[in-house]
Design goal:
2 domains, two-stranded antiparallel sheet, Rossmann fold, 9 helices, 226 residues, alpha/beta, 6-stranded parallel β-sheet
Length: 226
């Protein structure tokens, strides 16, 4: 813990990698003759594309940035890039998602998702995993044409959930997302049992970190707001 924080009323979860296993997207690349270990580079290029668009005052949907990145890194034809992107609708939750969400529900803490991905991806995956009833709502910053870690995305989510930023927490598997949430005034937790196993030391340290369940447990033991 880096500074005193209060127990959140709402916990927002990042979606891709944090909650959902992206193995089907990797499998789609392999099916098209590409190496499966190319996926992290595709994700990184996708984020770079979206971040640059946001920096210069423009915007593009996550899916468009993803398909463009697949094309740049593989030289696959347009139809094949679309096929890889379609695999996002086949994602399922990681095994530890259900117990983490269950802990929040039993404690009376609301759970939502906050992604910059395409609408429908989180809903389909949560339903497939049988945990949709544990999530109050699914939010995507596409609704306001903003990319995390722009503070606008986090403040918008807090507003939609009708809580002050310091009464919301974000849980994510990506250091940049955690940093963005903290700079926007949210409490933030880093999940160290995903692709990024070590938090980026160049950023402000996360408020809490550990496995997904450990992060949720750490948020739940925070003192109530005074």
């Amino acid at each position: 813990m880096t500074e005193p924080r209060a127990r959140p009323e709402v916990v927002a979860f990042d979606v891709d990698e944090t909650l959902l296993d992206v193995a089907p997207v990797r499998a789609a690349l392999i099916e098209l003759g590409q190496p499966g270990d190319l996926l992290p580079a595709v994700f990184a290029r996708t984020l770079l594309t979206g971040f640059v668009a946001a920096t210069v005052g423009s915007w593009c949907p996550f899916r468009a940035a993803f398909e463009a990145s697949v094309a740049q890194l593989t030289e696959l034809p347009t139809a094949a890039c679309t096929q890889v992107a379609d695999a996002f609708m086949e994602l399922s939750p990681h095994p530890d998602v259900e117990p983490a969400l269950r802990r929040l529900a039993e404690a009376g803490v609301r759970a939502v998702t906050l992604s910059h991905g395409s609408p429908g991806v989180a809903e389909a995956a949560l339903s497939r995993g049988g945990v949709a009833t544990l999530v109050e709502r699914t939010l995507t910053s596409e609704s306001i044409q903003a990319w995390k870690p722009n503070r606008e995305a986090y403040l918008w989510a807090a507003g939609v959930c009708d809580v002050a930023p310091d009464r919301m927490a974000l849980v994510a598997a990506h250091s940049w997302d955690v940093l963005g949430a903290q700079r926007a005034g949210l409490t933030a937790g880093f999940t160290s049992n995903r692709a990024e196993r070590v938090y980026a030391a160049v950023f402000d340290p996360p408020h809490v970190q550990g496995s997904l369940v450990e992060v949720v447990d750490a948020l739940l033991v925070l003192p109530p707001a005074g």
